[in-house]
Amino acid sequence: MNLVDAIRKASMQSGADQKQTAQPEPVPANSQESNAAAAASHNSPIAGASDVYEPHEISPAVIGGAGSVVRLELFLSPEQMHQMLRGILAGAHSVMTLREAARHLRTSIQSVVTLAESGDIPAFMVDGDWKFPRQGVEEWMSLQSIKTKGDYQEDQKDVA
Q1: Tens digit of pLDDT for each residue in 78-136?
Q2: CATH T-level fold of 94-159
Q3: Radius of gyration (Cα) for the chain, nearest Å?
Q4: Structural domain boundaries of the chain?
Q5: Burial class (CB in 10 A: 0-12, 13-18, 19+), 123
């Protein structure tokens, strides 16, 4: 089930729960407001809008904040939660460890060490451990793809 289906299912369930549990507030028959409300509810263009319910009490924490508040509940498996948190944390740091750089480049740790030792990839050492600036590694990857594309075009000219 994807996120849209889950939200749709939850909203349908909460709508059914509200109809079962919520009771409309009694309105005095004599008041002019009750007559106006009754007339408005019978002429409502929205299906099911004739039922008028009192709003739920709002938390003081919500009132104190500015803007709208949206509550979103996600039901994730442990694996989905793990992947989501890894994705969030991966983008949080501007400096990568050796393992993170190897994973980012999708290569072995030894290959990254070799590139760092030769000075081909932007890296520095802290307390004997290699560190890689994320922005520098991404720029290096872009330059490598351009360089590789240029080398490929030169090879094609030699063949012709």
Answers
A1: 998 888 888 777 767 789 999 999 999 999 999 999 999 999 999 999 999 999 999 89
A2: Multidrug-efflux Transporter Regulator; Chain: A; Domain 2 (1.10.1660)
A3: 30
A4: 94-159
A5: buried
Cα–Cα distance measured from residue 19 to residue 55, given in angstroms and rounded to the nearest whole number: 14
Tokens of 108: 């072995």
Percentage of the residues of the chain whose pLDDT score is greater than 70:
53
- What pTM does this model have? 0.41
Specify whether the CB–CB gap between 130 and 95 falls below 8 A. no
CB atoms inside a 10 Å sphere around CB 156: 9
DSSP string, 96-146: EEHHHHHHHHTS-HHHHHHHHHHTSS--EEETTEEEEEHHHHHHHHHHHHH
- How many CB atoms sit inside 10 A of residue 137's CB? 21
3-state helix, strand, coil in the chain (%, to 5): 60, 5, 35
